[in-house]
Specification:
With 168 residues, the protein is of the alpha+beta class. The chain has one domain (2-164). It contains five helices and five strands, in the order αββαββααβα. The strands form two sheets. The chain has a three-stranded antiparallel beta sheet with strand order 2-1-5. It has a two-stranded antiparallel ribbon with strand order 3-4. A hairpin with a 2-residue loop joins strand 3 and strand 4 (70-73). Helix 1 runs antiparallel to helix 5 (142-164) and helix 3 (75-93) runs parallel beside helix 5 (142-164). The two termini are 14 Å apart.
Length: 168
């Protein structure tokens, strides 16, 4: 019986470490480029702090901004969701199922917001073209990709932790 408990704690440690990595990667993604256009990069932090010309458009808050008709979520969300995934990792490490639930739900929300931003970048490109603005979007940045992938991985790891920590 002790062997099973030891293996269970090792798997919990590995799972919580992976969740911790996802949370930290999600938080760090805020400071990497989210959108690349006309040779410049915009980070999630710049959108949140209004330090980039695109992020100073009307209808902007710390949570989101509107750029030529598209809704864009700022880096606030990646910081918040990353912190909550780290909290979920700690709870999983302590053997609590609530950590798995938290990681799963927050990862799902983070992935959804990242997908909205990816779709918004395509809308932004189309609207700018229709309005005869000379805007060339090279694509989404690796910071947004890290946010999306780390959040999606948190969903998977949260689900695995729920299976691992189920009551027998």
């Amino acid at each position: 019986m002790e062997h099973t408990a030891s293996r269970h704690s090792k798997s919990t440690l590995i799972l919580s470490s992976l969740l911790l990595f996802c949370g930290i990667a999600t938080m760090l993604s805020t400071f990497f480029e989210w959108l690349v256009y006309m040779g410049t990069q915009v980070t999630g932090w710049e959108y949140m702090a209004s330090t980039h010309p695109l992020s100073t458009q009307p209808g902007k808050s710390i949570l989101f901004c509107h750029i030529w008709g598209s809704l864009w979520f700022t880096g606030f969300w990646s910081l918040l969701f990353g912190s909550l995934i780290v909290l979920g990792a700690y709870l999983v490490y302590r053997g609590m199922r609530s950590g798995g639930i938290l990681s799963l739900l927050i990862g799902l929300a983070g992935s959804s917001l990242a997908i909205v931003n990816v779709l918004a970048s395509r809308t932004f490109e189309r609207v700018a073209f229709e309005q005869a603005e000379v805007v060339i979007i090279s694509g989404i940045g690796y910071g947004l990709l890290v946010f999306m992938i780390a959040s999606a991985l948190a969903v998977v790891l949260g689900a695995i932790s729920l299976l691992l920590l189920r009551k027998v």
